[in-house]
Each structure stands twice: as structure tokens, then as C-alpha cells.
Amino acid sequence: MPSAPTPAAQHADQHPVHTPSPHAAPPRLTGHEVRLWRQFLAVAEALHFGRAAERLHMTQPALTLAIQQLERHVGVPLLARTRRSVALTEAGAALLEPVRDWLRQGEALIEQARAIGRGDSGRLRLGFVSTVGFGALPHWLLAFRAAHAGVTVELREATTDVQLRALQQAELDAGFVLHAPGMAPAGWPGGTVGRERMVLALPQDHALARAPRLSRSALLREPLVLFPRDIAPSLFDAVLSWYHAQGASPRIAQEAIQMQTIVNLVSAGLGLAWVPETVTQLQRPGVVYRALPAALAAGAPECETSLLWRPDAPACVARFVGFVQQRLGELGAAVGTNRRERSARRGTRC
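User: That's the sequence. What structure does it adopt?
Assistant: C-alpha cells below.
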């Protein structure tokens, strides 16, 4: 038979225990209240105090006291006891499934919080310059989503200056930005993810597009379609520095922000443009891409892409950064292997 409540149990009665409702969201619970409902569920499923106590790793008298305390707070019996059996009362049977679902929801919330803390769940607000979209970013995103399905990636295409403001205002967690080599924006954790040369985008019917060799003097005379300096100062300065090194000042015919727009303007014949080599994947009718010949390539502008992130970014950002670093490491290893294989083949032919 159940024993009388101890003074400790009577004192615990002063704290109300919430009753789960099948029609309401789970209320906030103290650890003590959660334990009481878990104990009820164990007895309700086993219909035996002894077996339920073993399952809960507690003594049978302590479990009996806990059920008594819960019933006093609920105000009705939840279990009908005799010397030989335990059964659910009508109220206990009605509460069984809501309690089970309610506790399951609590466990799911705990696991969700842990997953967010590990970086396996959460929201990643990721900015990127358009040039990254022509490179590895789509493949990285596909593989990252497959490996971390719990992370929602929100993409925002924006120029470097817009991304820096968004990072400052906590509107982005991380971003791929474009700049001259070694000139990554200061003040943010980050790392380089790629470096590439810049090539010329020329109107298809232009003489320079058809010429066997690019003429230095003809190239320097051509008007430029260029991005404004404020969106990528170091890269803008790198382009102008090449002209100055050639003893010339460029004539900027038109400024445009997005690389796609710049290429479209080149197609219309407004001038030539310097674009990152990855942009050559944008095959716009009326545009031809050409690299500088070796004679003019010294000091020619190059660009670098970096991944920056907020120091207080959520854990899923660290997951993404680690993923990108791993992919870059694999790429570097593959490039090194290919180089060694080519060297070995050359040695065999000799």
C-alpha cells in the first residue's frame, strides 16, 4: 500500500505541477515537474511500481511518493492501486498519450538546441560576390547541404562593400568578397579561398578581338567599362596601376556594378573590361575573352576571393568554414598529385 507523504513531499506540494494538455503547447517546466511526469509515464506503461522503479533507477517507496505528489497537484487519481495490480484511472488514461507526446517534444527541443550548439543545425546567412557563383560556390553549397541538412543557408548576392556593411550590422554571418591579392578587408576573421588573373572582355566585332596579337598601344587607347571604386577599392586601384605602369591613364566610358552587367555593356560595344577569369564561363553573345600576352602580363591585375565571417557568428558558420577549408585542402592535394603525375610522364618520355 502507498505510504504517507513525508515532510519533504509535503513541502514540495507548495510548488504547482503543470498538467499536460493535448490541445496546448508544452508549458515551461522545472526539472522537478518533468521528473514527476516521466515517473508517471513509467508506471503507466509498466502498470507495476516495482518494474517502473527499476527502469527509473530509484526505490519503489520514492516512486510511490512521487506519484502521490503528482496526483495531489492534479487533483484527481491517475492510477488505481490494489495489493495485486495497478491500473490507469479514466484521467490517467486520458493523459497517457499527451504526456508521452509532450515529453517527446521536450526531448526533441533539447536535441535541437544541442544540434545548434554543434553547428549541425541553424541558419547561415551567406553573402557572395557574383564571381564566386561562376566558380566553386554552387558545388560547395550542394555538398554542404547534403552533409548538414539541418543548416538552412540563406544566400545574398552583393558586392564587397554591401557585404561589409551587412556584416557590420549583423545582417550577414559570413561572405565571399573580392579584392586585390593580399588586400582582404581588415577587421574580420577570414581566409583566402582563391586567386585568379583578370582577363579582357572585348566586343566580338572589335579589331582587338580578332587580332592575332594584342597591341599594347591599341589596348591602352580603348575605353573601359569598369566597376566603381567604392565597391572594390583595392581591385579598382590594381587595374589603374597597370595602366599607369604602362605610362597611360585609362578612359572610363561607363561604370557598372555587377559583372554580368559589365559583360553585357561590353557586348553592346561600350568598351572593353577587365574581369576575373571565372567570368569567362558567362558566355554572352557578342563578347570575346582574351588573356594578356606575356609581353604585357607583368604587373597585370589579379584578384583574390576571401571568406569573411563575424566573430560572434553561430556555430553553423564554423561548420561551413571548416567545410570550405576541407574542400580547398582536397583541391590543393589533387592539384599537387596532377603536377607530380605530369612530371613523372615527362620524365618517362625523356
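Residues 1-17, 22-27, 334-350 have pLDDT under 50 and may be disordered.
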